[in-house]
Specification:
Order of helices and strands: EEEHEHEHEHEEEE
Protein name: Asparaginase domain-containing protein
EC number: 3.5.1.1
Domain L-asparaginase N-terminal: 2-150
Number of domains: 1
Oligomer: single chain
Number of strands: 10
Pfam families: Asparaginase (PF00710)
GO molecular function: asparaginase activity
Helix content: 25-40%
Shape: globular
Structural class: alpha/beta
Length: 160
Protein backbone atom coordinates (compact mmCIF):
# COMPACT_ATOMS: atom_id res chain seq x y z
CA UNK A 1 0.00 0.00 0.00
CA UNK A 2 1.24 3.48 -0.88
CA UNK A 3 0.15 6.49 1.15
CA UNK A 4 -0.20 9.71 -0.82
CA UNK A 5 -0.23 13.01 1.04
CA UNK A 6 -1.12 16.24 -0.76
CA UNK A 7 -0.02 19.61 0.57
CA UNK A 8 -0.89 21.98 -2.28
CA UNK A 9 1.66 23.85 -4.34
CA UNK A 10 1.66 24.73 -8.01
CA UNK A 11 0.56 21.23 -9.01
CA UNK A 12 -2.88 22.00 -7.50
CA UNK A 13 -3.21 25.64 -8.51
CA UNK A 14 -6.33 26.96 -10.20
CA UNK A 15 -6.57 30.15 -12.24
CA UNK A 16 -9.25 32.57 -11.00
CA UNK A 17 -10.00 34.86 -13.95
CA UNK A 18 -11.93 37.40 -11.85
CA UNK A 19 -8.81 37.90 -9.72
CA UNK A 20 -6.31 37.29 -12.57
CA UNK A 21 -4.27 35.08 -10.27
CA UNK A 22 -3.64 31.48 -9.31
CA UNK A 23 -4.69 29.97 -5.99
CA UNK A 24 -4.25 26.47 -4.60
CA UNK A 25 -7.41 24.43 -5.26
CA UNK A 26 -8.53 20.88 -4.64
CA UNK A 27 -5.98 18.22 -5.46
CA UNK A 28 -6.28 16.37 -8.76
CA UNK A 29 -4.15 13.49 -7.48
CA UNK A 30 -6.90 10.87 -7.69
CA UNK A 31 -7.72 11.89 -11.27
CA UNK A 32 -4.07 11.99 -12.30
CA UNK A 33 -3.45 8.49 -10.93
CA UNK A 34 -6.59 7.19 -12.66
CA UNK A 35 -5.43 8.73 -15.97
CA UNK A 36 -2.21 6.75 -15.49
CA UNK A 37 -4.32 3.59 -14.96
CA UNK A 38 -3.30 3.38 -11.29
CA UNK A 39 -6.56 2.56 -9.56
CA UNK A 40 -5.74 0.71 -6.35
CA UNK A 41 -3.00 0.00 -3.84
CA UNK A 42 -2.96 3.54 -2.48
CA UNK A 43 -4.85 5.98 -0.32
CA UNK A 44 -4.82 9.77 -0.62
CA UNK A 45 -4.92 12.16 2.32
CA UNK A 46 -5.05 15.92 1.89
CA UNK A 47 -2.93 17.49 4.62
CA UNK A 48 -3.19 21.11 3.52
CA UNK A 49 -3.72 23.32 0.48
CA UNK A 50 -0.88 25.83 0.60
CA UNK A 51 1.61 27.44 -1.68
CA UNK A 52 4.90 26.09 -0.38
CA UNK A 53 6.18 29.63 0.23
CA UNK A 54 3.42 29.93 2.84
CA UNK A 55 4.35 26.71 4.64
CA UNK A 56 5.62 27.13 8.18
CA UNK A 57 7.76 24.96 10.43
CA UNK A 58 4.49 23.86 12.07
CA UNK A 59 3.16 22.76 8.67
CA UNK A 60 6.35 20.78 8.02
CA UNK A 61 5.98 19.17 11.44
CA UNK A 62 2.39 18.22 10.55
CA UNK A 63 3.67 16.54 7.37
CA UNK A 64 6.41 14.76 9.31
CA UNK A 65 3.93 13.57 11.96
CA UNK A 66 1.48 12.28 9.33
CA UNK A 67 4.24 10.36 7.54
CA UNK A 68 5.53 8.95 10.84
CA UNK A 69 2.02 7.85 11.90
CA UNK A 70 0.97 6.18 8.67
CA UNK A 71 1.35 2.43 8.38
CA UNK A 72 2.60 2.54 4.79
CA UNK A 73 6.27 1.87 4.11
CA UNK A 74 6.11 3.87 0.86
CA UNK A 75 4.90 7.49 0.91
CA UNK A 76 4.40 9.95 -1.95
CA UNK A 77 3.97 13.65 -1.13
CA UNK A 78 2.85 16.29 -3.59
CA UNK A 79 4.36 19.63 -2.62
CA UNK A 80 5.17 23.06 -3.99
CA UNK A 81 8.65 23.21 -5.47
CA UNK A 82 9.92 26.35 -3.73
CA UNK A 83 10.28 24.77 -0.27
CA UNK A 84 10.16 21.08 -1.17
CA UNK A 85 13.77 20.64 -0.04
CA UNK A 86 13.04 22.12 3.41
CA UNK A 87 10.09 19.78 3.93
CA UNK A 88 12.23 16.88 2.72
CA UNK A 89 14.88 17.76 5.32
CA UNK A 90 12.22 17.72 8.05
CA UNK A 91 11.41 14.14 7.02
CA UNK A 92 14.97 12.82 7.40
CA UNK A 93 14.20 11.78 10.99
CA UNK A 94 11.55 9.31 9.72
CA UNK A 95 13.12 5.88 9.33
CA UNK A 96 11.98 2.60 7.80
CA UNK A 97 10.13 4.27 4.91
CA UNK A 98 10.72 5.32 1.35
CA UNK A 99 9.45 8.88 0.97
CA UNK A 100 9.31 10.70 -2.37
CA UNK A 101 8.29 14.33 -2.80
CA UNK A 102 7.17 15.64 -6.20
CA UNK A 103 5.33 18.57 -7.67
CA UNK A 104 5.10 20.61 -10.83
CA UNK A 105 6.41 23.82 -12.33
CA UNK A 106 3.01 24.38 -14.01
CA UNK A 107 -0.44 23.55 -12.56
CA UNK A 108 -1.78 20.08 -13.40
CA UNK A 109 -4.86 21.74 -14.88
CA UNK A 110 -2.75 23.38 -17.63
CA UNK A 111 -2.16 21.65 -20.94
CA UNK A 112 1.63 21.97 -20.86
CA UNK A 113 2.09 20.92 -17.26
CA UNK A 114 4.86 18.61 -16.13
CA UNK A 115 2.57 17.28 -13.38
CA UNK A 116 1.48 13.99 -14.95
CA UNK A 117 5.02 13.04 -15.94
CA UNK A 118 6.39 13.98 -12.51
CA UNK A 119 3.74 11.97 -10.68
CA UNK A 120 4.31 8.90 -12.86
CA UNK A 121 8.05 9.20 -12.51
CA UNK A 122 7.79 9.69 -8.73
CA UNK A 123 5.44 6.69 -8.49
CA UNK A 124 7.98 4.46 -10.24
CA UNK A 125 10.85 5.85 -8.17
CA UNK A 126 8.89 5.23 -4.98
CA UNK A 127 8.41 1.58 -5.90
CA UNK A 128 12.10 1.05 -6.71
CA UNK A 129 14.11 3.14 -4.23
CA UNK A 130 15.41 1.92 -0.87
CA UNK A 131 14.33 3.58 2.35
CA UNK A 132 15.18 7.27 2.49
CA UNK A 133 13.84 10.69 1.51
CA UNK A 134 13.96 11.76 -2.13
CA UNK A 135 12.77 14.42 -4.55
CA UNK A 136 11.64 13.18 -7.96
CA UNK A 137 11.25 15.97 -10.51
CA UNK A 138 11.51 16.14 -14.28
CA UNK A 139 13.05 12.71 -14.78
CA UNK A 140 15.64 12.86 -12.01
CA UNK A 141 15.76 11.54 -8.46
CA UNK A 142 17.69 13.43 -5.80
CA UNK A 143 18.49 12.48 -2.23
CA UNK A 144 17.15 15.25 -0.02
CA UNK A 145 20.54 15.96 1.54
CA UNK A 146 22.15 16.78 -1.82
CA UNK A 147 19.66 18.84 -3.84
CA UNK A 148 18.59 22.43 -4.33
CA UNK A 149 16.13 24.23 -6.56
CA UNK A 150 17.78 26.49 -9.11
CA UNK A 151 15.21 29.30 -9.28
CA UNK A 152 16.70 30.92 -12.37
CA UNK A 153 16.76 27.68 -14.39
CA UNK A 154 13.50 26.42 -12.82
CA UNK A 155 14.91 22.96 -12.11
CA UNK A 156 16.36 20.89 -9.32
CA UNK A 157 20.05 20.06 -9.28
CA UNK A 158 22.55 18.17 -7.17
CA UNK A 159 24.72 19.97 -4.67
CA UNK A 160 28.24 18.88 -3.79
Amino acid sequence: MIEVFTTGGTIDKVYFDANSEFEVGDSLMGELLAESNIRDGFSITGLMRKDSLEMTDEDREAVRAAVSRCAAERVLITHGTDTMVETGRSLLSVTGKTIVLTGAMQPARMRRSDAIFNIGFAWAALRLLPHGVYIAMNGEVFEVGSVRKNLKAQRFERTS
